[in-house]
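Lesson 9: reading folded outputs for more than one chain in a single document. The general rule is that every protein is listed as its sequence immediately followed by its structure tokens, and records are never interleaved. Here is the first one.
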Amino acid sequence: MKTKEKMSKEELLNQIKNSNGSLEISSVSSTEEGEEVIALAKQLEFEGKIVLLEYCLDKKPLAVSLKTKDPD
């Protein structure tokens, strides 16, 4: 059974704000978890907190890459 907690939108937003627009999250442990991180980024974009320019789920090694900018 997995005990790792899911990343919250607030945690992801903080990481994005501290990344200067280019963030790679290599701590994802499965494709599903990577897809959840991308879904969170899309929610942040929908809420107007970020502009999601590009996203990628790399499979080797497993990581999520996000390119963002602050909303105008």
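And here is the second record, again sequence then tokens.
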Amino acid sequence: MEKLTISIPDEKSDLVKQILKGMGVLIQGAATTPSSSYREKLKKVSTWDEKDLETLEHAKTAFSNFKAEEW
């Protein structure tokens, strides 16, 4: 199956779609996601405050100062 993208004038769009569907062509609509779903996803994003960042910095320096024990 071949995929084809065409631009159709708005006033002819319904007619062209009807003809193509009659010929067995699969017409896919534009894949759009409602903005409300994006908002819901953004609400679930966690944020870090200064205390969280201090903990990460402390852990980073702790690993930097780590010395392997010699046998």
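What the second record shows: The mean pLDDT is 84.
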